[in-house]
Structure formats: C-alpha cells, structure tokens
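Just scan this pair:

***
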Amino acid sequence: MSEKDQVNQFSREIIEFQRKNNLTDTEMALNSHVSVEHIHNIKAMRENPEPSVVANLRNYMEHKPTGK
C-alpha cells in the first residue's frame, strides 16, 4: 500500500470514528493531544502525519473513555 493510500485510509478511520462517537475536530484534538490543524490536514490529505501523531490518535481511538 502506498503512503498516500495509507494516509487516505487513516483519514477515513478518523472520520468514521468521529461520526460514530459524535466528536468534532476540536474535541478530538483536545482528547488526543493532537492539534486541530493536524487533524484537519490529515483528513484533507494535505499532510503525511508523523508517527507520533498517528500513535496519539490511534491510542485515543482505541482507548476512548465513555463520555468524550
């Protein structure tokens, strides 16, 4: 899978997670400790995220507490 395909897939995962959990980009940023700008750019596929950003987002999505 190419790097662009990986970013595209990850952006879809973020969008689906937000939809499922009714989260805005701002809420996702605050809870995952990733800037809202990074989240916007990843979803728009304008940025290849650093591994640490991907790790923070994946960790949050896998361990999201109830509530938000």
In short: The longest helix spans residues 3-21. The chain has four helices and no strands. The domain at 3-63 is CATH 1.10.260 (434 Repressor (Amino-terminal Domain)). The two ends are 32 Å apart (CA to CA).
